[in-house]
Amino acid sequence: MLEVFVFSTLNGLVTGLLLFMLASGLTLIFSMMGVLNFAHASFYMLGAYFAYSVSLKLGFWAGLFFAPLLVGTLGALVERYALRRVHAYGHVAELVFTFGLAFLIEEAVQFFWGADTKNYRSPDLLDFPLFVLFGQEFSAYRGFMITISVGIFLVLFYVLTRSRIGIIIQAAITHPHTVANLGHNVPLIFMAVFGVGTALAGVAGVIAGPVLTTFPGMAVVLGSIVFVIVVIGGLGSLGGAFVASLMIGLLQSYAIASNLGMPDLLNLLGLDFSRDHPLNDLWTLTLPQIAPVLPFLLLVLVLIFRPTGLAGKREE
Amino acid sequence: MKRLHCRNTLRFLLTGLVLSALSTTSAQEPVRIAFIDPLSGTFAAIGTSGLKQLQYAADELFNSKGGILGGRMIEIVPLDNKQSPTDTQIQFRRAVSEGLRIIFQGNSSAVANTLNSTISRHNRRNPGQEILQINYSAVDPILTNEQCSFWHFRFDAHAVMKLNVLTDYIAMSSDIKKIYIIGQDYSFGQVVSDTSIALLREKRPDIEIVGNEFHPIGQVKDFTPYVTKIVSSDADAVITGNFGADMVSLARSIIDSGLDIPIYTFYAAYDGITATLGADGVDKIYLVHNDAGNPLPTEERLAYTRNFKRLNPNNDMTQFRITNALQMLVQAMEASQSTDPYDIALALEDMRFTNMSGEELWMRGEDHQIIQPLHISVHTDQNIVVDADNSGFGLYRDFSVGGDETVVDHSCRMRRPRR
């Protein structure tokens, strides 16, 4: 039992931290533009595919360096030449634009790389078990994923709260006109934040590609869950996104590891149904079976009882 | 000057139109076949690969040899359903409105079930304009049992038939004592789980089922939490019906965890899966399927596959049953000298056919289920003549059973239309 608990916690941490890398960029961009970027997970996918192509020629580490740069540049260009124009027509137009962009990127990925799964490998250097506990291996690559994610969180936290750039960004989000009057180039700041946000998604793609498989559906699989995290954490709150990411990573991991289900609940209540009961499917439902939909359940609950999310500020 | 140029262009276009109209009336009308499968979205890889194989079979075997029924070409009309039952309904309507009477479909039993009931209803209401369903891949047993239909023909062995062979194979290895079953939470996944448990209890009562897990289809980001459970259950083998990305991720997670046990699968090959598993999957991944795999049984089959590979360097001949299905369909058309689904259906019933691999195929008339030899192959790079994903790795045949040994009873009570 203990081994399952320990490994579920580790698995939950890996997933949670990975989700945070996506959610952090998304929530930054949200607080800046006031719209959710539906194409955010698509940049994550692009990160994985760019890194895959680079790794074929120059190896994994070059991919880790170049792919986020490429994705970030692409993100910045999208902001500068498309989103900024669309911005003039209001939030709905922006929302629809990012929605369309997500489809466009998915189709483009299929066009250039094909629809099949890509053989994107983790580096040989990290191809050993970091430690063996209770007879189970924990791979060095997963340890590497945790290190990178935590590193990025710390750097991001430091830059945003302790550095001068962070102060200007925070000010530009809440008081753009005042910041502009002080002589700062606010559109440039927005472009930079969008670029960095998408680059973060790119990093997530680079390090997730080898373990979560690189295929054209990877954006869709992760996309919805990232929105859930941003909403649960409170739109625009970095700390909230961090807590929500870990919460959802661990929640799913524990739910899968548990063997609890409706039969246990019915036993507890002393009830019993025969197998041909019309609601048999409901009475035999188990927690692992519904684990991947639990975040959405949590989303509904949070929206009902705390509409601003865990750390969101109530809008005036 | 510019005006003149415009007028010339117009005249040119008009002439072209008239010419093309003339040519279609003078040549014989093609036999049009709809192909409804995912050509975009998460499962696009399998769908597009199937389309290429059907197109190749039509061109290579018939169109390049003067067509069928005395000179008519076969035209494949691809319709994208994104593997969603809703989109399938829309594409079915489109096929009907375009006058297509034969539908090839294979991916997802959920889609096949929807199509089956939609076609049954359509055919009941529109006598004389029936549609024929050629199911080349959906293996939910229900389609040739409780839900069987006169208008549906299946060209792949259904899940229970495959599991019968697979459990025979597992029963032979005496060192397997504990088995973990994991699958996608939908009709096919449930069938794999229920049937494996029932058959293993019968064939090897000493085998303990240490896990029976379902996960939502196409929703799992990371399979590591599931693998943690598999490891702690001390399983000696895993059975899964997963396909596509769910299959790769699961196998990769199992292998990455350092677990060295066989994984018995239905779909763990091709479309990037073989390349992704690579050296890590050697002698671990087993597949039950209807294709002979390496070594290819006949020279003709080898040449046919090599030619496909030459034309489509990035694809493999993953579903040879598509070729079987088209050949038998054409044979039925030729025998009945008709393209009407009713005549074709009658001709297909109880048809016996020797395919390119030299295997005997029989379309059982009672339930429209194909009976054919089945094989268990292993993922390896030894003695591979035709590899998968250009990776050097491929499937090597390890165990085969003849068609008559794969026969299982059916519960089909077919409603046969009267004409």
The largest pleated sheet of chain A is described as: 2 strands, antiparallel
Strand percent estimate of chain B: 15-25%
- State the total count of DSSP E strands of chain B: 15
Q: Label the overall shape of chain B.
A: globular
Can you list the strand order of the major beta sheet of chain B?
Answer: 7-6-8-9-10-14-15
Q: Mean pLDDT of chain B, rounded to whole units?
A: 89
Walk me through this protein's architecture.
The complex is a heterodimer of chains A (316) and B (419). Chain A has helices spanning 2-33, 40-58, 60-87, 91-113, 140-162, 164-174, 176-181, 186-212, 218-233, 238-257, 262-269, 280-283, 287-290, 294-305, and strands at residues 129-133, 136-139. With 316 residues, chain A is mostly helical. Chain A has a domain at 2-216. Chain A has a two-stranded antiparallel sheet. In chain A, strand 1 and strand 2 form a beta hairpin. The model of chain A has no long low-confidence stretch (mean pLDDT 86). In chain B, helix 9 (273-277) links the parallel strand 9 and strand 10. The termini of chain B are far apart. Chain B has twelve helices and 15 strands. Chain B has helices spanning 2-26, 44-61, 85-97, 109-125, 159-172, 187-203, 224-232, 244-256, 273-277, 299-311, 321-336, 341-348, and strands spanning 31-37, 74-80, 102-105, 132-135, 152-154, 178-184, 208-215, 237-240, 263-265, 285-289, 352-354, 360-364, 369-371, 374-380, 394-401. Mean pLDDT of chain B is 89; it is low at 19-26. Chain B has a domain at 160-294 and 374-405: Rossmann fold (3-Layer(aba) Sandwich).
Secondary-structure blueprint:
The complex is a heterodimer of chains A (316) and B (419).
Chain A: H1 2-33, H2 40-58, H3 60-87, H4 91-113, E1 129-133, E2 136-139, H5 140-162, H6 164-174, H7 176-181, H8 186-212, H9 218-233, H10 238-257, H11 262-269, H12 280-283, H13 287-290, H14 294-305
Antiparallel strand pairs in A: 1-2
Helix pairs in contact in A: 1-5, 1-8, 1-9, 1-10, 2-3, 2-4, 2-8, 2-9, 3-8, 5-6, 9-10, 9-14
Chain B: H1 2-26, E1 31-37, H2 44-61, E2 74-80, H3 85-97, E3 102-105, H4 109-125, E4 132-135, E5 152-154, H5 159-172, E6 178-184, H6 187-203, E7 208-215, H7 224-232, E8 237-240, H8 244-256, E9 263-265, H9 273-277, E10 285-289, H10 299-311, H11 321-336, H12 341-348, E11 352-354, E12 360-364, E13 369-371, E14 374-380, E15 394-401
Parallel strand pairs in B: 1-2, 1-3, 3-4, 4-5, 6-7, 6-8, 8-9, 9-10
Antiparallel strand pairs in B: 10-14, 11-12, 12-13, 14-15
